[in-house]
Amino acid sequence: TKRAVVIGAGHYLPERIVENAEFEGKIDTTDEWIRSRSGIERRHFVGEGETTSTMATAAAKAALADAGKTAADVDAVIVATSTPDLTFPSAATMVQAQLEMERGFAFDVQAVCAGFVYALANANALIISGQADRVLVIGSETFSKIMDWTDRSTSVLFGDGAGAILLEAQTGEGTSDDRGILSTDLNSDGRYKDLLYVDGGISTGTTGYLRMQGNQVFRHAVEKLAASANTAMERAGVSPDEVDWIVPHQANIRIIQGTAKKLNLSMDNVVVTVQDHGNTSAASIPLALSVGQERGQIKKGDLLVTEAIGGGLAWGAVVLRW
Ligand code: ACO
Q1: Residue 268 Cα distances to 58, 167, 246, angstroms
Q2: Could you tell me which residues come within 8 angstroms of residue 245 by beta carbon, excluding any fewer than 6 positions away?
Q3: Protein residue whose Cα sits closest to atom 35 of ligand 1
Q4: Which secondary structure element, helix H or strand E, spans residue 236, and what is its range?
Q5: Measured between alpha carbons, how far is 196 from 102 in angstroms, rounded to an integer?
Q6: Dist. CA 250 → ligand 1 center (Å)
Q7: What 3-state class would DSSP assign to 279?
Q8: Does residue 147 sit in the same domain as residue 184?
């Protein structure tokens, strides 16, 4: 049987770094409030000419270089995003063109902050079914474009960026090599729409800004993330004490700590980037995977659990051996 194995990772962050202190004086907030309530210290924002697809392409090129592959080796491109360049075509087909690919297929996945977990589950299914042998899975977001800069409860929390991994079909039969995606768990509950949404869109003929009842989202997060991670671990046949790294969606350090505690795991086993990136929605997990590998935390053969929750509500987890 085939396994979807990670053979490369990369990321891209815009040059412009905005420290918490830059918000002081513009809105009624302090560095101290942002740090203590969210764990965020700084975030990156896109500059002139940078978009979701250009950041996604840069991250994809870094992942291809890490894998020692070229775009010609890729069968499919999946971009997880809620902030595509245009209503259509998909950001993924724009990345396909920017990579100068002349074959294969590409599409976007929209599950807000859970987007990368949803994209991984889709890529895994494409590989197991034989539809594709190499899939670029990218998370890329420009949440700075949907911020209400007068709303202190949201505008300080989000950032821009992109991360990517390259998955390859491998059999691993007859060997002890059990790398690859071991299980996935996806959930959503549309009854919670009002907790986190953008109050505008195409079919309503409006543009909009992100609206969030942060404390309500918080209430759901730890419980749902831990339940999904446990379900995915059970499906994979692994126990929490075998896990080398939790790579969580990076929304808030207190949610990350709460979820680790609920899973009986130490913060020493958690990859944390929220202090430097803020909440980059679907980009946060692939950013953390790539940065974690770069820091020397995540190594080949490590057992990883990724988990995320966001607008929908939509949430899920993926267990993989790196
Ligand atoms: N600076 C100073 N004060 C602030 C700020 C700010 N930037 N923002 C809010 N406050 C105030 C509020 O107005 C409130 O004041 P009040 O008590 O006078 O009304 C007070 O701080 C407390 O507000 P809470 O919202 O209760 O604060 P909380 O401790 O819950 O922290 C936060 C807020 C950081 C948003 C937290 O709830 C959180 O991180 N929630 C989850 C966010 C998340 O995970 N989102 C999901 C992923 S995103 C996606 O899917 C796109």
Answers
A1: 30, 27, 10
A2: 269, 270, 271, 292, 297, 298, 302, 303, 304, 305
A3: 214
A4: helix 214-236
A5: 38
A6: 15
A7: strand
A8: no
60-69, 202-211, 267-276, range with the lowest pLDDT: 202-211
Cβ 283 under 6 angstroms from ligand 1? no
Are residues 153 and 187 both part of a single domain?
Answer: no
Active site residue 249: yes
pLDDT-based confidence at residue 171 (cuts at 50, 70, 90): confident
pLDDT at 1: 82
Q: Are 167 and 18 in contact (CB under 8 A)?
A: no
Kindly state the average pLDDT of the residues 234-258: 97
Catalytic pick from 11, 44, 124, 249?
249
Q: pLDDT-derived band of residue 173, with 50, 70 and 90 as boundaries?
A: low
Whether pLDDT at 176 is above 70: no
40 lines ligand 1 (CB under 6 A): no
| Same domain assignment for residues 164 and 18 | yes
Same domain, 157 and 9: yes
CA of 27 to the centre of ligand 1 (A): 14
Kindly name the residue from 11, 20, 44, 113 that is annotated as catalytic: 113
ipTM of the complex: 0.92
Domain limits at 203? 180-321
